[in-house]
Amino acid sequence: MTTSTYETDIVAWANEQAQLLRTRQFTLLDIEHLAEEIADVGKSEQRELANRMAVLLCHLLKWHYQPARQGTSWQLTIKTQRERIKRRLKQTPSLRQCLNDSDWLADAWDDARDLAEKETSISYEKFPETCPWTMDDVLGNDWFPN
């Protein structure tokens, strides 16, 4: 087996580390970087969920603040993001705790306000400082803000 370093070819390194694990060659493992990569998997999953939530919240903001522009495209984006968030929560149930984490939600809301400002030209400050909707509403299949 050739030895690739974490810094020069992470894909080759990951394959080598997986092979070392499968063959139980534990003393040859790059423990420090393995631990870092495992921790990053969780962070990556949280980032994906936060990004999807921000897009969903952005479109709900647009729906609420621009009723004259409501249309099929926005409905489809809202539906798609809801479905993908629910799928992610089903596949990784521990992510559900994010929905109850006020800091995580505040970050997703701020990102949604940023996106909505860029997409609507409505000032960031015109949107509520905190999400006015419950997560049950936000993720509800048929719910749309008035």
CATH hierarchy, class: Mainly Alpha
Q: What is the CATH topology classification name?
A: Malate Synthase G, Chain: A, Domain 4
- Helical content stands at 55-70%
Helix/strand-derived category reads mainly alpha
Short description:
Helix content is 63%, strand content 0%. The N and C termini lie far apart (62 Å). With 146 residues, the protein is mainly α.
What does this structure look like?
With 146 residues, the chain is mostly helical. It has one domain: Up-down Bundle (Malate Synthase G, Chain: A, Domain 4), CATH 1.20.1220. It has helices spanning 10-22, 31-65, 72-91, 102-120, 135-139. The longest helix is centred in the N-terminal third of the chain and has 35 residues, at 31-65. The chain is elongated and about 65 Å long. The model has no long low-confidence stretch (mean pLDDT 94).
Layout of helices and strands, plus pairs?
Blueprint lengths: L9 H13 L8 H35 L6 H20 L10 H19 L14 H5 L7
